[in-house]
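Tutorial handout. Part one gives the primary structure; part two gives the three-dimensional structure as tokens.
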Amino acid sequence: MARPAHSFELGSLRLSPGEARCTVLEVPVGELEFGGQAYSAGGRCEARLDLSRTMSGYALRLRFEARLSGPCMRCLEDASEGVEVDAREVDQRGDAEELHSPYVEDGVVDLRGWARDALALALPTQIFCGPGCLGLCVVCGENLNRDPGHGHESEPDPRWAKLSELKLD
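Part two.
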């Protein structure tokens, strides 16, 4: 069983350069706001953390699956979407800023922040209740999934309004 962890101390594995280890942890993943709506990932996800020691730092990989639940972006009914996350980070000593991970500070990896950001980047562009979701009526807001034949009589084109004043006898 995976142990809960908000962070992970890199030195705890005592890796020599060239060595690698894998550990399974239960990482907290809170709510995400996406498109102005709140989506929940269930609180915690079982994640696999791969660590490789390099000559001057670490190469890290975080993998997990999460199931987001929240409103459908078309009809606002309940929706659920599975998301696979595979994120990589590098943290190397030296002056090159691009080789410093924002999730590693003083030899400790912020798993909570990294998992949240990686999940946000792995989200699909839209979350639907189903692939054939019809959405809402643009006129009255009726859920078109419940009544696919729903419709409204179209308004006459205002450019033709003067023609209605003609008297044809």
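Part three, for discussion. Residues 76 and 135 are 8 Å apart (CA to CA). The beta strands are 3-4, 7-9, 20-29, 32-34, 37-39, 43-53, 57-71, 78-92, 104-105, 108-110.
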